[in-house]
Specification:
This protein is of the alpha/beta class. It has helices at residues 3-13, 78-91, 107-124, 141-150, 163-169, 175-189, 205-218, 245-260, 265-269, 282-290, 302-305, 313-320, 329-334, 339-342; strands at residues 24-25, 35-40, 43-51, 94-100, 130-134, 153-155, 193-199, 223-228, 295-296, 346-348, 351-352. The protein has three domains: 3-243, TIM Barrel (Alpha-Beta Barrel); 245-290, no CATH class; 292-358, no CATH class. 39% of the residues lie in helices and 14% in strands. It has an eight-stranded mixed β-sheet with strand order 1-2-3-4-5-6-7-8. Helix 2 (78-91) packs across helix 3 and helix 4 packs across helix 6 (175-189). The protein binds iron/sulfur cluster (SF4). Iron/sulfur cluster (SF4) binds next to loops.
């Protein structure tokens, strides 16, 4: 099998690892897949995302690389991947590598090969771009430490918010020892880490949000990615129900509100029904539940302002530091507010619309 054939198999097999909710694949029209526009350390660049090997010894029931799947298998030798990446870097303006792998045999053995690739790129070829290194469950501390030296960001996929859900999905991974323990190592060694969870009917939004908050607070995670479950043909879960993208998007909304607006988990718990968020925009749902009288936009604090739909942190700061009173909706619009969304919750120049709950 030549390198391009391997690239096709291993890049396709790597598509389930998220490198951002807005990522999009670049069609380079050269028979290659796996190149994405993705955000890497605040900049958008072309990233090549691939597995080192797709022949897994593990049995995760959702995964097309698992030991029960008969998909075509392939693996790179480190030299092959280095040569291919250098070609993509110089000819196709690819400036980032996202390297992951199935656990083919002992986790340290395959991790050694991945380290060989990133070390060669950094040391021999002086590659200065972005490298995202996926840590495999069961990898030893020394290997995680070595990989951290050459990576920009690291991650290990925890897959589920709780130990019990993970045990339904895989009999090989131990939630605490294989996953959470390695997350704490990465937090100490690198700091810059992400993780990914599959969203399915086995877990509630409450479980997912609680685990996310724990990661942001205790492991200083940079990002948590959510993947709505999609059944993959040939896996034991091929007939299971797909999860809706709208649920995935609501969780991204909540995540954003926690990271950038500093909303607290207990605020979301208060609007849940049996552990699930209402099927609407979470900020709007919170406002409809909590704002029972119109907010005077000229008197409100920053914390009050950012809880109004249509007003984000930047607009809230501008409103606080405004030179003149806001008496017209156009002034709010000029400061960046989304007037249509905010209108039912605010009072401007003595004007107020009916609250949404009054309709
Ligand atoms: S560890 Fe599980 S999820 Fe990862 S490649 Fe192997 S079977 Fe797939």
């Amino acid at each position: 099998m030549n390198v391009l054939e391997k690239a096709n198999i291993l890049s396709k097999a790597g598509k389930y690892d998220s490198c951002g909710p807005e990522m999009c694949e670049v069609n380079v029209n050269q028979g290659l897949c796996g190149i994405y526009h993705a955000k890497a350390e605040h900049e958008t660049c072309r990233i090549f995302k691939t597995l080192m090997d797709n022949n897994c010894s593990f049995d995760c029931k959702y995964c097309s690389n698992s030991n029960s799947c008969t998909k075509k298998k392939a693996k790179y030798e480190p030299k092959e991947l280095v040569t291919l990446f250098n070609y993509l870097h110089t000819k196709l303006d690819v400036n980032g590598l996202f390297i992951s792998s199935a656990v083919s045999g002992a986790p340290d053995k395959i991790t050694d090969k991945m380290i060989d690739v990133v070390k060669t790129l950094r040391v021999k070829h002086r590659f200065k771009g972005y490298i995202h290194f996926k840590v495999l469950p069961g990898t030893s501390y020394d290997k995680v430490k070595e990989a951290a030296e050459y990576s920009s960001r690291m991650s290990i996929n925890i897959e589920s918010p709780t130990k019990s859900v993970l045990s339904e999905l895989s009999s090989c991974k131990d939630y605490k020892n294989d996953l959470l323990k390695r997350q704490t190592w990465i937090a100490k060694l690198k700091g810059n880490q992400a993780t990914q969870m599959i969203i399915n009917e086995m877990s509630t939004d409450k479980d997912v949000i609680k685990r996310t908050d724990w990661g942001y607070s205790n492991l200083k995670l940079k990002r948590v990615y959510y993947s709505a479950f999609r059944p993959v043909k040939g896996t034991p879960l091929e007939n299971a129900k797909a999860e809706s993208l709208s649920r995935q998007n609501r969780l991204y909304n909540v995540d954003f509100l926690m990271r950038c607006y500093k909303f607290k988990v207990k605020e979301f718990n208060a609007i849940m029904d049996e552990g699930m968020l209402p099927k609407q925009d979470p900020k709007m749902a919170l406002a409809m539940q909590n704002l029972d009288s119109h907010v005077d936009i000229n008197e409100a604090s920053y914390e009050e302002l950012i809880r109004i739909p249509g007003i984000g942190p930047r607009t809230a700061v501008k409103i606080i530091h405004k030179k003149e009173k806001i008496t017209r909706y156009e002034q709010l619009h000029k400061l960046g507010g989304w007037v249509k969304r905010a209108k039912p919750f605010i009072e401007v120049g003595g004007k107020r619309q009916k609250m949404l709950c009054e309709f």
